[in-house]
Amino acid sequence: DDGFCSAPSIVESDEKTKPIYWKATNPSLSPSHLQDLPGFTRSVYKRDHALITPESHVYSPLPDWKNTLGAYLITPATGSHFVMYLAKMKEMSSSGLPPQDIERLVFVVEGAVTLTNTSSSSKTLTVDSYAYLPPNFHHSLDCVESATLVVFERRYEHLGSHTTELIVGSTDKQPLLETPGEVFELRKLLPVSLAYDFNIHIMDFQPGEFLNVKEVHYNQHGLLLLEGQGIYRLGDNWYPVQAGDVIWMAPFVPQWYAALGKTRSRYLLYKDVNRNPL
Ligand SMILES: NC(=O)N[C@H](N)C(=O)O
Ligand SMILES: [Mn+2]
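That is the input. Now the predicted structure with (2S)-amino(carbamoylamino)ethanoic acid docked in place:
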């Protein structure tokens, strides 16, 4: 009306009515918004990092799973020692088992699944819940309607006589942990004890907050931005990112995040821990 262009304002009232993590599976810059830009993607793949945005996710039937499509987003072909994939479970679907000696963590981003195993009663996992399945642990994830899971798997690295256990939980039940020198809020989904060779961090930033440490470290990361928007620095590159984006970080890639936009940023982060890198 005033005769100049301005950025459209976000319809916040609409967003407030949506369920938690809704944006992770319905990003605002989704393939449908990009259909008029032939060949456009924000995805990049470099030696020490990758950004894999939703318009690049390629789904195909997951071997051994029933009625489930999977998109492997991080695999050893990228240089990682773990896989990270999204599993879209449809009506009456079920999981397959990981290969021998492989541990698994599943986190529910959308929908609900039932976890069944031989040693305890079955459990329903809804959005924001997760399960850690030790290596060679017989289990099944079953879905009646639909669900989206993010799944991490890696070869378990034994240490002495330590063993891991089945863990079922949800982010909101995990305590906030100290983050000396940092402002973000941190929760960990797995125990910090030596038995576990990786952990999943849930990190929350308010708009304007950022990592104080410009991190360079031996650990690898697989990241799913669950909520919010910001800028991710990876090496010498600065990437605008939003909910639904996945990032692979190789050991020693310089990494830094600043949360922007109007809402909280929350990301889920795989990190290998507790093992001597030699
Ligand atoms: N890129 C990250 O957010 N890294 C974490 N702060 C971490 O390494 O714990
Ligand atoms: Mn890090």
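The pocket of manganese (II) ion (ligand 2) is lined by residues 215, 217, 221, 255 (CB under 6 Å).
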